[in-house]
Amino acid sequence: MTDQLSNGFFSQEFKLKIPDGDDRIRRVCSHCQFVDYINPKIIAASVVTKGSKILLCRRAIDPRKGFWTLPAGFMEQGETVEEAARREAREEANAEIRIDRILAVYSVPRISQVQIMFRAELVSDISPGPESLEVELFDWRDIPWSNLAFPTVLWGLTHYAETRSKTVFAPFSNPPGTEALTR
Amino acid sequence: MTDQLSNGFFSQEFKLKIPDGDDRIRRVCSHCQFVDYINPKIIAASVVTKGSKILLCRRAIDPRKGFWTLPAGFMEQGETVEEAARREAREEANAEIRIDRILAVYSVPRISQVQIMFRAELVSDISPGPESLEVELFDWRDIPWSNLAFPTVLWGLTHYAETRSKTVFAPFSNPPGTEALTR
Ligand SMILES: [Zn+2]
Ligand SMILES: [Zn+2]
Q1: Looking at the Swiss-Prot or TrEMBL record, what is one Pfam family this protein matches (chains A, B) (predicted)?
Q2: Contact criterion met (CB < 8 Å) for A77 and B105
Q3: d(CA B175, CA B181)
Q4: Which of A2, A40, A109 sits opposite B42 (nearest CB)?
Q5: Which domain, by its residues, includes B56?
Q6: Are A72 and A24 in the same domain?
Q7: Which of A31, A34, A37, A117 to mutate to test the interface with B (most CBs of B within 10 A)?
Q8: Which end of chain A is more exposed for a tag (fewer CB within 10 A), N or C?
Q9: ipTM of this model?
């Protein structure tokens, strides 16, 4: 049912069809009728601050290797969103964080991703984890704006700036006028 | 690689192992090495109100058939969380809703679910969709508290009540003391 590709991944022969009892087209394996229910994936992310400084990580892996990002990654099974955000900060920057509250929920339908982004405080030292080339606490004016890895990093940083003096605020969603980046 | 079961579903023979280049145990098909990356799934839900009344739907399907729930369901590919919440209200109650803001983000790690729940306003008539036995707008005191389908329905309703007079509030998460229900 699958062929191993030169990159080590496997290929399955899926056909698009509507499984019995379902109401929409799914990817179904033509050999064994396995239904590949592709659900949107959750990214847990954090804008982590220490005083007026903001934690960024320079990516050691593709995509966007060498560019700066917020601590973020795919949520795994068996954890809460908050636990996922803390785990990612630990994996990418050896950072212990104290989560304050939800900053934003962004949807990227083109790649079926939902990013749940927290506002958090750094409560440890930092050092690069295996997925980071370097990690750094930036003053706002020194943020490498032209070398950010993803649009959601820019959105998170600018939305964070709007909440700096606030303890209560509604979470942000995708900024208006950014549909071309997400559809 | 799969056997069809009497209920029409297919069974795959998965073994638990760490795929090359990964760092944790995954379910891998013992025949074809297909890796089943099970990611947490997103439920988009809404507390939908009309004046002081709250929309509930009595489930026509398992699990918890016959019990009352909020309009909610699995987010699909290619949509935003807000679009998923509007689609579910349409599917379950033929309801058009106007989303106000995020009410809560609940994590249910035992079943790897994240519920993103909105506060929303009803802007149409309602009638039962195929997954609902009946749909009704309840006064607060008439809500069938002992016949709610899921703990998250109770959480969403009580958290909603705390926000009634508020336009700005931080989203809620799992109530304290409910770990036994979610782990
Ligand atoms: Zn197959
Ligand atoms: Zn297989």
Answers
A1: Zn_ribbon_Nudix
A2: no
A3: 11
A4: A40
A5: 41-182
A6: no
A7: A34
A8: C
A9: 0.74
A16 alpha carbon – ligand 1 mean position (Å): 13
**Lowest model confidence (mean pLDDT) among A10-24, A127-141, B67-81:** A10-24
DSSP string over B110-131: GGTEEEEEEEEEE-S-----TT
Give the nearest chain A residue to B31 (CA atoms): A1
Residues B124 and B65 in one domain: yes
Ligand showing the shortest atom-to-Cα distance for residue B29: 2
Residues B86 and B28 in one domain: no
Which residues are CB-contacts of A174 (< 8 A; sequence separation ≥ 6)?
Answer: A106, A107, A155, A182, B80
- Which one of the ligands is nearest to A29 CA? 1
CA nearest to B43, candidates B160, B128, B146, B156: B156
**pLDDT, tens digit only, all 183 positions of chain B:** 344 444 334 445 566 777 766 666 776 766 666 666 667 899 999 999 999 999 999 999 999 999 999 999 999 988 999 999 999 999 999 999 999 999 999 999 988 899 999 999 999 999 999 999 999 999 999 999 999 999 999 999 999 999 999 999 999 999 988 988 888
Considering the domain architecture, whether residues A54 and A85 belong to the same structural domain is answered as yes
